[in-house]
Amino acid sequence: METKSLVTGQFQIEQYANDIFEFSLDAMIITSVDRKTIALNSSFSELLGFSATELVGNSSSLWYGRTFTEEESLKIWDELYATGEWGGEIIVKNKDGYDKPFFLKCKLIRSDNGKAIGTLAILTDLSERKRLEEKIIEGEKYGNIGESLAALMHEIRNPINGISMNVYMLENSINGHGHWTEGESESVHLIGKEIKRLESLIKSALSYAARVEVREENIRIRSFFDELKELLDKKALEDGVELIFEIESEILSGRFDSHLMKQVFLNLGKNAIQAASKEKIRVVRISAKTGKGSSWKSVSASGTVLLLSVENSGEPIPDTIAKHLFKPFFTTKDRRLGLGLPTSAKIVREHHGIISHAHSTEPPYSTIFTIAVPK
Fold first, then answer.
1. Any residues with CB less than 8 A from the CB of 134 and at least 6 apart, and which?
2. Average model confidence (pLDDT) for the chain?
């Protein structure tokens, strides 16, 4: 009876170990002492893109060598054999060549007599943690910028208001008495026009600096797009741009602040229409669908998100400009503060989402902005 119980217990332990290995959210891979891959779990395949067929029986350098040089690899193996373990943060290139942050923990596997027979590598995905760290740092940085900007704009607004009032009085004087020369009259009107532009810029800066209060509610995407279409149709018609709205399903819905998200899509939509209007093929597509998979776990713990996209035809945005798109005060347009996209990004962040830019791979579209928010 004792033997049977022991065997049953051993079987249970082995079964639990197999289940832990296979169903762990961390990527795991077992290699022999000669660095040949023995086994890997499904999370390894999901996170790094390599299948068991590609790696099992082959050298672990197929994935390992994409991260470490031969010299670095030898140092890790030396420490592993000396201490029995090695750990540290690393950046791993997945099968498609994209960098992903992980914490790598390597353990030496020994037989009952103490002989080294292999290694177990456990890779914990740090993407979510890194995203949150960046969000905190970015939030603190832009929060400080916002506070300083708000104080500065309030100080500037007072003299601007005084100048604006005096210009108004001068304009009334021109209209009432008519003793100004044509040049003087034109100068006063120009000053008034520039004052209005400054007031508009101050308003934009204060809007960016203001705290975003998100009031989320369940939104039917079809209704949201219908309202958005009404607001963008006029500009699209004026610029000769075809405006297309596509929804994965008529019952598709999301949870967000409709007013704030509309502000984001008006900014993205108008920019897209302007870019498309310069080309022979003039088209803008705004679409919505559900995104699923481990790559979205940095946005939603369930891995399910709402994806909202704006694509346009025309010249793609150069990489030298694209990397600055969401930075405050960066602009390629004259007479603008460059706060449209940063304000949009700020709103999306407050929804616990992300906004990204990429080159579209589906002609005639060249540029795509994608927003992912938890669903």
1. none
2. 80
pLDDT band at residue 10 using 50, 70 and 90 as cut-offs: very low
pLDDT in tens, 75-128: 888 888 888 888 888 888 888 777 888 888 989 888 888 888 888 989 888 877
CB half-sphere exposure, 259, CA atoms < 13 A: 5
Q: What is the pLDDT at residue 371?
A: 94
Residue 317 pLDDT grade (very low, low, confident, very high; cuts 50, 70, 90):
confident
Q: Are β-strands 283-292 and 242-247 bridged in parallel, bridged antiparallel, or unpaired?
A: parallel
Tokens of 157: 């607004």
- CA dist 236 and 273 (Å) reads 6
Rounded CA separation 204/211 (Å):
13
Check residue 251 and give its pLDDT. 94
User: What is the CB-side half-sphere exposure of residue 358 using CA atoms within 13 A?
Assistant: 8
Length in residues, the chain: 375
Distances (CA, A) of 214 to 43, 88, 238, 269, 346: 35, 38, 33, 21, 11
Q: What is the 3-state secondary structure (H, E, C) of the chain?
A: CHHHHHHHHHHHHHHHHHHHHHHCCCEEEEEECCCEEEEECHHHHHHHCCCHHHHECCECHHHHCCCCCHHHHHHHHHHHHHHCEEEEEEEEECCCCCEEEEEEEEEEEECCCCCEEEEEEEEEECHHHHHHHHHHHHHHHHHHHHHHHHHHHHHHHHHHHHHHHHHHHHHHHHHHHCCCCHHHHHHHHHHHHHHHHHHHHHHHHHHHHCCCCCCCEEEEHHHHHHHHHHHHHHHHHHCCCEEEEEECCCCCEEEECHHHHHHHHHHHHHHHHHHHCCCCCCEEEEEEEEEECHHHCCCCCCCEEEEEEEEEECCCCCHHHHCCCCCCCCCCCCCCCCCHHHHHHHHHHHCCCEEEEEECCCCCEEEEEEEEEEC
Split at pLDDT 50, 70, 90, the class of 288 is very high
Report the alpha-carbon distance of residue 350 to residue 256 in Å, rounded.
Answer: 10
Kindly tell me if the per-residue pLDDT of 136 is higher than 50. Answer: yes
pLDDT at position 1: 36
